[in-house]
Amino acid sequence: MSTQFEATVEIDRPIEDVFAYLADGEHDPEFSPRVLEISKTPPGPTAVGTVFHSTVKDAGVRTVRDFEISEISAPTRIRWHEVSSNAVTAREGGYDLEPTRDGGTRVRIFNVLEGHGVGKLLIPFAGGAARKDAPAFGRRIKTAVESGTA
Known about the structure:
Elements: E1 2-11, H1 15-23, E2 35-41, E3 51-58, E4 61-73, E5 77-82, E6 88-99, E7 105-115, H2 119-149
Antiparallel strand pairs: 1-7, 2-3, 3-4, 4-5, 5-6, 6-7
């Protein structure tokens, strides 16, 4: 069983800057309060095969999550999938970026969540919480990129 959430946000920064910020997945804690720690292997620029290792806290439970970059096409597209084993995982996720007429960037983020074992019972709750937070998540990305941390 799976479910999806997505959000779209416009960021007042050029597409190249937004892409660079998002491709550096180590920025995730700046806009995702659930991410407690994150690192990547191998070091250097993000490319297909890069794995981001994170510790997250969802509903009071800490888990370790590993996401592998499956596609990266500057400056418009990033895709990942979770390679860790958890009750609920992101089967696929990504960012789609496009320039706006005023020099900004429209970003669509999405994740397809999948339940495994007991996670099949949790997926409606996890998906509902993710969909409810999606607009705020998009706004947090916008704020982080525009605040100059990019």
